[in-house]
Amino acid sequence: MSKIKVWNLNNLSEVHGRRFLLQPDSLELYFHGRRSILLSFPPPAGEKAESVVSQVYKRLVSTCGSSLKIHFLFHPGKHVARAKLTDDWVNRKISNFEYLMHLNYFSGRSYNDLTQYPVMPWILADYSSASVDLTNPKSFRDLSRPIGVQTQGREEYFKERYAGWHDDEIPPFHYGSHYSNPGFVLWFLVRLEPYASSSLHLQGGHFDYPDRLFWSVADAWLGCTTSSNDVKELIPEFFYLPDFLLNRNKFELGSTQNGSRIDDVVLPPWANESAAEFISINRQALESEYVSSHLHHWIDLIFGYKQQGQPAVDATNVFYYLTYEDKVDMSSIADPHKLNATTSQIANFGQTPRQLFSSPHPKR
């Protein structure tokens, strides 16, 4: 017998249009107390992706419209402007963290969907010193550049890849991987449930090889800034949740090839072996004056005008074409094998957020 769940619409406060597998066929409902659910409404064969969800959305708005704080189905950028979130951020009425989380929500990122988990930037670039100076620009990553091209040599490599790409079906790209996908989220959160169980399911009942697990913050940073296949950004937990760095569940994660046992995540020296201190300093770095005056550049890359088109090319910020929502219409794919392959690609290898801004983002 299938389970039936009931939600009280009297407690509904927000309705956000969402995508599932890059198709605009879903809604995320927010209730008072910030409880939320993500619902997908696949269309009948041959109909547009938004055919069913549009009807559900109209019914919800007609029923609950007067009590809804926010509701939208399409064009989330207009609703960011309407809510005056950017003005609030520029005028320091909300923090950097709060603003980035708002942009994540409006662009379709959700804790309810591992394929579109909220994305946050690497902030610091120093993971080896005994202390970190948050007034020194050299302590920080370059927020005007994608994480994959923090050095000139890396930028040249990816630009050459883009220029040398020739394929009749697949457009050129700088990165074959993405800065956020389900595997990366589970990689970071492997020490916490329910993500540990999801990791086990993904790996066929066992954890990944120890050398491939998230075992060190410094090693993770090194991989993202030196490997051509690793361009992952961070998740919000890096700025508020020490628990994900600790193996309190005592999972047997194995030992690396050099014999080091994998347990709690190895932290940079400036964290003084304290997960709480690491989170505190990382959050202070996010809210620092340096980041406040440069964060608009990263927003341009992830949510803004440098996300697509020629500005993305110029910024070395083009990803594989199936990470963008306007590049594929699933309902038009008749071949079941091609449909399965496309679905798997979109589900597992990253999805670019919805674009919220079409012009340079204002500086704080």
UniProtKB/TrEMBL annotation:
Residues 1-61 form the BEACH-type PH domain. InterPro entries: BEACH_dom, BEACH_dom_sf, BEACH_Domain, PH-BEACH_dom, PH-like_dom_sf. PROSITE patterns: BEACH, PH_BEACH. Pfam families: Beach, PH_BEACH. Keywords: Repeat, WD repeat. It comes from the Eukaryota. Gene3D superfamilies: BEACH domain, Pleckstrin-homology domain (PH domain)/Phosphotyrosine-binding domain (PTB). The keyword Repeat applies. Residues 74-364 form the BEACH domain. PANTHER family: BEIGE/BEACH-RELATED. This is BEACH domain-containing protein.
